[in-house]
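[step 3/7] inverse_fold.run input=structure_tokens len=912
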């Protein structure tokens, strides 16, 4: 690997690379459209570390801003789809459809699933791959001629479909329901601004992508997918759900609901393996809706449709055969002159159209299309009339419009005040800042989350993501238009191979958990090819991250838990017993290294030998790569959480990238894609795990830039400093807290676990009290109760300086003092700063203060916490149980609504 490079030098190099991408105008559609990300959203959210460096909102008291925004997202999705509940984003439309299939099968326990032939090809591929992993049967059908037999769990349809066509699915839904099968509808939010929502056809689940709501194409991602369903399926729903609850002061507050469905609790019985999703992009799409408001969105939606009507008219007048008369934005036609003539003319204008395998051509209109663009398209289709003429002829209320049919949308949407207040840039900027100010991120202080690796996301790394040469590229353009991307992928792959010691990398998985799933599917395909398809046992230490067992389940493997010993290392005896017991069926062993207990298992070599001896593969969970880069390289395959070790910011719960690296023998089985050739051995490939060929391509410049700026020496040094920092902190806290696991020399790896269990007995203090109390000191809690309950796992990373490490240690030491004061009676056992944490301004400044400790101790517990540095949590401690018992997962209705200015909805309405 080359030596390090400076920031300006690097940007220079990268901009040369970016220029090798030819950004043509694309009308390819297929689930990806050009958009105008409002510049104020681009700058104030996407390019703003106050939003991009937030963690997943588990500490809800200091995350009310993004929780409100995600609730807006859920409300927006429910309104447009006509469904009752929505989650706060999934990875992409394809995986959302696959999750929907899984829900159907979980619900009615039948193992066959229909997919309509007119779904997007990448959606079909992702669902088929998922079904294969799980051992389900899929059948591609024509929904008009489908018979529901007793073993059919459900059907996936698309509205409008991949040909652009719009159909009435009411009868299909009736037929399905009379057979107790479910109906999943992939749909398009922009189309639903003017079209009858799928919920009104009675479908059970609606999925899709919110990319069209202001998110750049980014050569495939990142974008937020959505998943909405009926209230009855709420608890089966995958992904994160934001819900309304109350805090300790009885005020309304938001938090992540229904956590018990998730893989960190339920492991292989979780509703899905989704951990990192697309929170940042969901926030941006929600803000796009907040900014435009219902009328603005309807105008955009209608303008796109009218553009398509004009193109369709031109197509007819050009003498071509229109495939569908009823469409929203996509005009599919059979050219009378042959495809090549059309393609030729399009290429001359540097325009990409969609060329279907059946010889037809598709043109998808989006919000960026202007009159000159329409004229170019009309020329390509030999229209004798230009856009003005056709627009005049069609009039402002075109007869051919979908709004003159039964598909016209009659129901309201986005009537909530939040979508009707911020339609000027003045007000939207303030709203975004107001939300941002409620949330703690890396711009405030270190976020020492063990296993999550919250490190510096440098501006230089981030800048290229919004360059048009990276952001403006459709994922299905011909590969000679993306030479810049190809060079970057190649260099990144080479660097990652060198770092990990693997032979081949797949950049498709767009999260760590998707990487696990892809990796296990690769193992499965490899074993099948070897004639050992019966091997399906996956051994996983009990200390593993919940995504491990959840992903193994998705790959159709059976999970056998392996004990860990008192030192936190894998129990070798148990492992050996289990490997031997399952020797005929052993597929894989998943190990996190250094372990989730923060130590390097010194037996890792023996473990690998043992698993290989019994015919299994060693899957290394690469989440802890920050302790290994440039130091060691174990395993047969592994994913790398680029959003942890390789500097992609967490974005409040995504985006991420989880590419997998494999040794040579597994390389032929890596992911492929139905529309873009990315694998040298498509017939052997495990299939497709993500909708886009290279996952969330447009954030890969971050990782590329980090590696190039650091160079081999810098990367090694980063790992060394990360380990040093963890050891420094563990040492400084000695005498106050016990570090649970150390190696035989008394050292930890890049993170360490401190034991808080004894305080329950001595002071009735639980680990959650310490976590909440840290908020008063301006810190986000470390990882709590994982992998051991009653503990905190601290990971400082190399990015924090000694002053910050010391501040955190001082906070922990002062908290230990408070615990001692409870132990010896100086502080009340029940009403003390720990139990009452966090302290909001409202509580501290209220005229009645009835607590037996001073207000100052509540709000300013250390000298470094002063009025000029204080971060204030905005709500008191969250009541999780109340929220789960009284589930509300959309914006409160008009009449009960109080906005952020403290006005009721009536006051707000009067004011506007
Ligand atoms: C974060 C993490 C994962 C899951 O990765 P995502 O990108 O969030 O899907 C898996 N294993 C470990 C140890 C992790 O820390």
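[step 3/7] decode complete -> sequence:
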């Amino acid at each position: 690997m080359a030596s390090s490079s400076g920031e300006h030098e690097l940007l220079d190099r990268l901009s040369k690379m970016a220029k090798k991408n030819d950004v043509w105008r694309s009308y390819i559609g297929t689930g990806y459209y050009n958009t105008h990300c409002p510049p104020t959203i681009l700058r104030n959210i996407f390019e703003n570390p106050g939003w991009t460096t937030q963690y997943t909102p588990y500490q809800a008291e200091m995350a009310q801003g993004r929780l409100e925004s995600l609730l807006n997202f859920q409300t927006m999705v429910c309104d447009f789809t006509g469904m009752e509940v929505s989650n706060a984003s999934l990875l992409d439309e394809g995986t959302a459809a696959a999750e929907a299939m899984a829900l159907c099968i979980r619900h009615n326990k039948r193992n066959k699933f229909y997919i309509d032939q007119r779904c997007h090809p990448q959606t079909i591929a992702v669902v088929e791959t998922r079904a294969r992993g799980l051992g389900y049967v899929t059948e591609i059908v024509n929904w008009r001629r489908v018979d529901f037999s007793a073993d059919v769990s459900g059907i996936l349809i698309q509205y409008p479909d991949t040909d652009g066509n719009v159909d009435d699915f009411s009868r299909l839904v009736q037929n399905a329901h009379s057979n107790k099968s479910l109906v999943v509808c992939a749909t398009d939010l922009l189309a639903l601004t003017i079209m009858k929502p799928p919920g009104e056809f009675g479908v059970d689940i609606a999925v899709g992508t919110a990319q069209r709501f202001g998110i750049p194409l980014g050569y495939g991602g990142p974008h937020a997918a959505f998943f909405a369903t009926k209230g009855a399926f709420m608890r089966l729903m995958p992904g994160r759900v934001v819900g309304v609850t109350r805090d300790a002061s009885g005020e309304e507050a938001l938090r992540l609901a229904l956590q018990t469905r998730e893989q960190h609790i339920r492991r292989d019985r979780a509703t899905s393996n989704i951990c990192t999703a697309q929170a940042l992009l969901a926030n941006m799409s929600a803000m796009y809706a907040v900014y435009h408001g219902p009328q603005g969105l309807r105008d955009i939606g209608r303008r796109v449709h009218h553009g398509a009507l004009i193109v369709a008219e031109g197509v007819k007048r050009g003498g071509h055969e229109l495939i569908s008369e009823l469409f929203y934005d996509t005009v599919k036609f059979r050219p009378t002159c042959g495809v090549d003539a059309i393609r030729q003319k399009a290429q001359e204008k540097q325009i990409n159209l969609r060329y279907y395998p059946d010889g037809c051509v598709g043109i998808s209109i989006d919000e960026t299309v202007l009159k000159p663009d329409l004229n170019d398209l009309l020329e390509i289709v030999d229209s004798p009339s230009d856009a003005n003429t056709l627009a005049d002829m069609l009039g402002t209320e075109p007869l051919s419009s979908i709004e003159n049919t039964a598909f016209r949308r009659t129901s309201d949407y986005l009537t909530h005040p939040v979508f009707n207040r911020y339609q000027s840039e003045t007000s939207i900027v303030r709203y975004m800042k107001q939300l941002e100010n409620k949330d703690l991120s890396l711009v405030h202080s270190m976020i020492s989350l063990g296993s999550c690796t919250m490190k510096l996301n440098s501006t230089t790394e981030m800048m290229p993501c919004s360059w048009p040469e990276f952001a403006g590229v459709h994922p299905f353009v011909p590969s000679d238009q993306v030479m810049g991307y190809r060079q970057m992928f190649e260099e990144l792959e080479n660097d990652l191979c060198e770092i990990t010691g693997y032979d081949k990398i797949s950049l498709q998985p767009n999260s760590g958990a998707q990487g696990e799933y892809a990796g296990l599917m690769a193992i499965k395909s490899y074993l099948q090819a070897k004639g050992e398809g019966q091997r399906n046992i996956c051994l996983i230490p009990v200390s593993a991250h919940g995504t491990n067992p959840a992903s193994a389940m998705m790959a159709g493997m059976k999970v056998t838990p392996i004990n860990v010993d008192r030192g936190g290392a894998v129990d070798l005896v148990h492992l050996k017993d289990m490997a031997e017991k399952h020797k005929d069926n052993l597929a894989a062993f998943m190990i996190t290294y250094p372990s989730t207990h923060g130590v390097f298992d010194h037996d890792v070599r023996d473990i690998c030998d043992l698993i290989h001896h019994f015919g299994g593969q060693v899957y290394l969970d690469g989440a802890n790569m920050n302790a290994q880069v440039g130091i060691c390289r174990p395993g047969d395959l592994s994913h790398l959480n680029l959003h942890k070790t390789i500097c992609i910011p967490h974005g409040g719960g995504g985006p991420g990238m989880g590419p997998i690296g494999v040794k040579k023998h597994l390389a032929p089985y890596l992911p492929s894609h139905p529309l873009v050739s990315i694998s040298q051995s498509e017939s052997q490939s495990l299939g497709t795990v993500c909708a886009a060929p290279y996952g969330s391509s447009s954030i890969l410049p971050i990782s590329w830039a980090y590696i190039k700026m650091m160079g081999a020496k810098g990367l090694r040094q980063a790992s060394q400093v990360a380990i040093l920092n963890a050891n420094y902190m563990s040492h400084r806290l000695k005498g106050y807290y016990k570090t649970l696991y150390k190696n035989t020399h008394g050292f930890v790896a890049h993170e360490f676990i401190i034991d808080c269990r004894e305080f329950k007995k001595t002071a009735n203090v639980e680990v959650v009290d310490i976590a909440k109390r840290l908020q008063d000191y301006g810190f986000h809690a470390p990882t709590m109760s994982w992998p051991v309950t009653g503990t905190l796992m601290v990971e400082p990373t190399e990015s924090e300086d000694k002053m910050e490490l010391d501040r955190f240690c001082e906070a922990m030491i002062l908290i230990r003092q408070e615990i001692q004061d409870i132990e010896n009676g100086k502080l009340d056992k029940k009403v003390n700063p720990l139990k009452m944490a966090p302290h909001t301004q409202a509580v501290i400044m209220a005229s009645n203060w009835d607590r037996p400790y001073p207000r100052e101790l509540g709000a300013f517990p250390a000298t470094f916490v002063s009025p000029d540095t204080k971060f204030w949590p905005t709500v008191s401690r969250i009541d999780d149980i109340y929220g789960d018992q009284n589930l509300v997962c959309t914006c409160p209705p008009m009449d009960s609504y109080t906005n952020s200015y403290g006005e009721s909805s009536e006051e707000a309405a009067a004011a506007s």
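[step 4/7] annotate
Residues 524 and 530 are 10 Å apart (CA to CA).
The pocket of pyridoxal-5'-phosphate is lined by residues 275-276, 451-452, 511-513, 545, 547, 592, 596, 621, 623, 641, 656, 658 (CB under 6 Å).
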